[in-house]
Amino acid sequence: MTPAGRMRFTVAALLCAASVLNYADRLALSVVSVDVRREFALSEQDYAHVVTLFLFAYAVMYAGSGYIADRLGTKRGYALFVAAWSAVQMLHAAAMGKWSLGGCRFLLGMTEPGNWPAAAKAVAEWFPPEQRALGMGVFNAGSAIGSAVAPPLVAWITLRYGWRTAFLATGALGAVWLVGWLWLYRTPDHGPTTAGPTPPADWRLVIRQRGCWTLILTRFFTDPVIYFVIFWLPEYLRKARGFDLAMVGQYAWVPFVFSGASYALGGWLSGRLMRAGWRLSSARKAVMLAGACIMPAALFAPFVPEAWMVIAAITLMAVGHSLWVANLQTLPADLFPSAEVGTVTGFTGMGGAVGGMLANLGTGWVVAHFSYAPIFVLAGLMHPLSAALTYWLLPNRVFEARLTNR
After folding, report:
1. Among 4, 187, 202, 357, which one is least packed by beta carbons within 10 Å?
2. Cβ-contact 345, 206 below 8 angstroms
3. Which CATH superfamily includes the segment(s) 7-185+204-405?
4. pLDDT band at residue 194 under the 50/70/90 scheme
5. Predicted pLDDT of residue 30
6. What is the torsional sign of CA 371, 375, 378, 379?
7. Alpha helices in 162-300 (DSSP H)
8. What's the pTM value of the predicted model, to 2 decimals?
9. 193 band by pLDDT with thresholds 50, 70 and 90
């Protein structure tokens, strides 16, 4: 393996590890939500409000974190984000009620979104176009691994030492990652990008471009599906399917293991299609369409009789979303110059977080007044709708115009 190849492997591993921490930290609350709600006397609607504070801050700061990543550069920007969210995660241990818990979630939402634009910049810096989706897939696999690790880890710590210790322990892991990042990451020796500060992108010009507002729209519809799985799956299993905390720790990780493998598969597959002669745009959209076609499995989740069937349906949801995201999150680097990748990723992520925030409020109300069934039905339909929008609004000529201008 060449030195550049080894460095790409190192970068991918660091990005994957950061996403593991990011998702383990945000998922910790959902694992212990029933216990926290019981201690603080919170209803489902109260829990929805707490989660919404996270998503509101996440939506606002997603765009801001993209700008920060472009201004500070990959190395410094990423270090700042991870240090901040790890400290906030530990702060959760001091929560005393709904609003202090909500304040911690708000601060976590302000700090966690920086993971995504900073990682997108790192991938754009180190990976050529035919390997870029694989780099994004490996990076995104970390979110699935974190989601898989969190239920058994947080449940184990909570059962032995209490839920407050679980937040302290998961937050403290960020310091380990920071040492590795600051020691290992460096600027590429050649290529059009740099890891240092760059002139700010003109966000007003960026957001008016077809590629940007189309990706904002598609993420608005599809990101809420994975937010539902992250924030409501343990709650659903315990309230609607009779799981206890130990059972959540034993089974809730399963969808995320398959999701992690599917992130890497989705990234590899579009690169494989490109090497077989497919155009970049066709390869990306074909894998996204394949993931969208799997998502209607969600429609069966609330109606199947056995718990293992529920886990299987949700696993298919996670697999379909992972194939989708591995390529969707690569599109900013495909459509925009490096100096704008962080900004575009931030805006598109903000669209997804706004959609997640609105969907979360709706989920709390629907669950309180009806059941989880309407939520699963909507979750199964959003990706096929967004796939149709992507084919319509981002025809191949949009990608070809960008490639011609490089």
Report:
1. 202
2. no
3. MFS general substrate transporter like domains (1.20.1250.20)
4. very low
5. 84
6. negative
7. 163-184, 203-207, 210-239, 245-251, 254-275, 280-294
8. 0.70
9. very low
Residue whose structure tokens are 């599917």? 262
Residues 380-402, buried b or exposed e (16+ Cβ, 10 A)?
Answer: bbbbbebbeebeeebeeebbeeb
140: left (phi over 0), alpha (psi -120 to 50) or beta: alpha
* Residue 90, amino acid: M
Among 393, 37, 26, 5, residue whose Cα is nearest residue 226: 26
Q: How far apart are CA 391 and CA 287, in angstroms?
A: 12
Angle separating helix axes 3-31 and 98-111, nearest 10 degrees: 170
Q: From 209, 218, 181, 151, select the one nearest 86 (Cα to Cα).
A: 181
Instruction: Decide if pLDDT at 177 tops 90.
Output: yes
* 294-322: b (≥16 Cβ within 10 Å) or e: bbbbbbbbbeeeeeeebbbbbbbbbbbbb
CA angle at 162 for the pair 242 and 257, rounded to the nearest 5°: 55
